[in-house]
């Protein structure tokens, strides 16, 4: 990758569309990412999270469920009474905090990924139908979306979670379904915009089929905005999952998750604050990373913003 | 204008009706509301007796009709835990929660709006960096976690602020700040981007080209138009805070509705949760309607649009 392969005019902001070919586009994106330091930090944080989740069994110093009552509530290694055997200390049952945090990333990432996958799929289909058909169907769907978005979201999530009981699948389904209106709204808005665009009009006048217009001209253009929304929503879901865990409404207590750790650590708030500090920091850095990444993606993937932001 | 308000009013009523249906069907979603509301170890006889007493054995449409009819009269059934009507219990808790949320909103607006205005007017400045940082942190820090950390610092170690309760004005500081933090972040981002966007509008260019002083341009044109998106999100943010108060009230033992929900979940007191869910939605919907009206008054473009 040399300077020469970049467009000459750097001040205008680099446009992905100018680069031809898939490989070049990827290189181009990385190049853009390199220029935006906060986006880079976001990506690094996000990749770290994935790395932790995938390699948890190999990099955890201990079994996250292994209890050792003789070593309960040990402080972090660098403070008095701590040992490097348990770098971040242990909880009330003597379980290694670092290992539990590493394993906890699996719950967060699973909930975030599958929750967003369900929400995006549902929302995209509904939004496409609304935006493309228009008329009564559109008004009905928009009304429903507004209805759901006008409700106090957190309260209803807590309410629903308390009814269905603690399991990973339930948590994923709750977030997947309750969050889909956001995706539906984005999709609908984009479809309405795209339908009026010049190239869709040309495609219609050339006699392209509905099928072709939707799959060839509309869907590919939805990916950018939806990925951006997905990043923010994934961050929000990880956040809310921890909140549910804190209220003892997320995954069963036997599974190490950041929210469950916060809930358990709350009892030792004054005597062992590290039980709270580290899981909270894990949530914060995850959320921070995804928000930074989302901000960057929005700037890069939305051509309209790219034009404004110089 | 009247037409707009009327349609918004109708929409609000429709939303509340939808919430009523949701609240009704949700407790029946597992198939057996009696089992959901009784302690796990209850015998089959007690559950059957409870089902009989609550009328869960009647046909569904009769239960629904009854539920809606009573809800319209303000009767959401009795709390299972307190054995008294749920609504007065909630209303007794309302002032505390409103105080908390209003305090949180106040802190958020007081910090976020001036900062966002300065940041948006001077992109790239130190203030702008600070605003972006605050916006990001408000979004990324789990506020209920921050609440507990602040308790450790300010109540336990420094002994400066009370860690729980609602007895003195000092006990408001931490819960309000923590509850308002996500809103603060959202408002900073919104204000900043609104100012940035308005700066690029045609009427601003016109104002410059006719030689208006930049101070006047900002005070008359930019800042005034920034108020429009701000007003429209405040209703949404308030609703968000009412939900977030579940966590904050639990942590700070703040005797409001949020704490009541958390307790009611532990008691399996679903009539109470249903009532709170509906009542909170009512408050949020009313607030949204109110902000939309304010919106229409502020922005003639909305008033005349059909």
Descriptive terms for the model:
heterodimer; A: mainly alpha; MetI-like fold; 69% helix; disordered N terminus; B: 306 residues; mainly alpha
Summarize the structure in words.
- The complex is a heterodimer of chains A (310) and B (306).
- With 310 residues, chain A is mostly helical.
- In chain A, 69% of the residues lie in helices and 0% in strands.
- Chain B is mainly alpha-helical and 306 residues long.
- Chain B has 13 helices and no strands.
- The longest helix of chain B has 38 residues.
Secondary-structure blueprint:
The complex is a heterodimer of chains A (310) and B (306).
Chain A: H1 22-35, H2 37-59, H3 97-133, H4 135-149, H5 153-164, H6 168-178, H7 180-195, H8 198-205, H9 210-246, H10 258-265, H11 274-301, H12 303-308
Helix pairs in contact in A: 2-3, 2-11, 3-4, 3-6, 3-7, 3-9, 3-11, 4-7, 5-6, 7-9, 8-9, 9-10, 9-11, 10-11
Chain B: H1 2-26, H2 33-37, H3 44-54, H4 60-72, H5 86-121, H6 126-140, H7 143-157, H8 170-199, H9 202-209, H10 214-251, H11 257-267, H12 270-298, H13 300-304
Helix pairs in contact in B: 1-12, 5-6, 5-8, 5-10, 6-8, 7-8, 8-10, 9-10, 10-11, 10-12, 11-12
């Amino acid at each position: 990758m040399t300077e020469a392969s970049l467009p000459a005019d750097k001040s205008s902001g680099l446009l992905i569309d100018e680069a031809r070919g898939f490989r070049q586009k990827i290189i181009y994106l990385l190049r853009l990412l390199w220029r935006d330091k906060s986006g880079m930090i976001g990506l690094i944080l996000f990749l770290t999270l994935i790395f932790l989740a995938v390699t948890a069994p190999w990099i955890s110093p201990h079994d996250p469920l292994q209890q050792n009552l003789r070593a309960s509530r040990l402080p972090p290694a660098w403070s008095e009474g701590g040992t490097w055997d348990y770098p971040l200390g242990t909880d009330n049952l003597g379980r290694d905090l670092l290992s539990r945090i590493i394993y906890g990333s699996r719950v967060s990432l699973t909930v975030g990924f599958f929750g967003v996958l369900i929400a995006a799929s549902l929302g995209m289909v509904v939004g496409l139908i609304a935006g493309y058909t228009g008329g009564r169907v559109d008004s009905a769907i928009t009304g429903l979306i507004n209805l759901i978005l006008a409700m106090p979201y957190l309260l209803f999530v807590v309410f629903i979670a308390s009814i269905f009981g603690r399991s990973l699948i339930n948590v994923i389904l709750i977030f997947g379904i309750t969050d889909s209106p956001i995706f539906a709204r984005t999709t609908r808005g984009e479809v309405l915009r795209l339908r009026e665009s010049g190239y869709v009009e040309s495609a219609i006048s050339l006699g392209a089929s509905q099928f072709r217009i939707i799959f060839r001209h509309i869907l590919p253009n939805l990916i950018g905005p939806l990925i951006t929304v997905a990043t923010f929503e994934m961050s929000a879901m990880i956040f809310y999952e921890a909140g549910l865990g804190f209220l003892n409404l997320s995954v069963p207590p036997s599974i190490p998750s950041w929210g469950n750790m916060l809930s358990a650590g709350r009892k030792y708030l004054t005597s062992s604050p590290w039980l709270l500090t580290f899981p909270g920091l894990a949530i914060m850095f995850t959320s921070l990373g995804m928000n930074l990444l989302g901000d960057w993606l929005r700037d890069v993937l939305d051509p309209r913003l790219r034009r404004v932001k110089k | 204008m009247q037409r707009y308000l009327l349609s918004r009013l109708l929409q609000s009523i429709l939303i509340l009706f939808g919430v009523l249906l949701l609240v009704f069907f949700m407790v029946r979603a597992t198939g057996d509301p009696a089992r959901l509301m009784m302690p796990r170890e209850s015998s089959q006889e007690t559950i059957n007796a409870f089902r009989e007493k609550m009328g869960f054995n009647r046909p569904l449409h009769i239960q629904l009709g009854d539920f809606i009819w009573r809800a319209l009269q303000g009767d959401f059934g009795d709390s299972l835990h307190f054995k008294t009507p749920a609504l007065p219990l909630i209303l007794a808790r309302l002032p505390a929660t409103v105080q908390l949320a209003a305090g949180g909103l106040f802190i958020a607006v007081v910090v976020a709006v001036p900062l966002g205005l300065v940041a948006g007017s001077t992109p790239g400045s130190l203030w702008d960096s600070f605003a972006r940082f605050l916006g990001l942190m408000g979004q990324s820090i789990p506020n209920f976690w921050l609440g507990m950390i602040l308790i450790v610092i300010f109540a336990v170690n420094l002994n400066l602020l009370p860690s729980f309760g609602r007895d003195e004005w000092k006990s408001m500081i931490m819960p309000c700040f923590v509850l308002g933090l996500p809103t603060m972040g959202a408002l900073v981002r919104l204000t900043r981007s609104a100012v940035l966007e308005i700066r690029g509008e045609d009427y601003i260019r016109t104002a410059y080209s006719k030689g208006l002083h930049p101070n006047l341009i900002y005070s008359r044109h930019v800042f005034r138009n920034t108020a429009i998106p701000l007003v429209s999100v405040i209703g949404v943010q308030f609703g968000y805070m009412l939900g977030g108060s579940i966590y904050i009230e639990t942590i700070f033992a703040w005797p409001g509705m949020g704490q009541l929900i958390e307790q009611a979940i532990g008691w399996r007191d679903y009539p109470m949760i249903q009532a709170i869910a509906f009542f909170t939605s009512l408050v949020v919907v009313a607030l949204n309607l109110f902000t939309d009206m304010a919106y229409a008054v502020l922005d003639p473009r909305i008033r005349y649009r059909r």
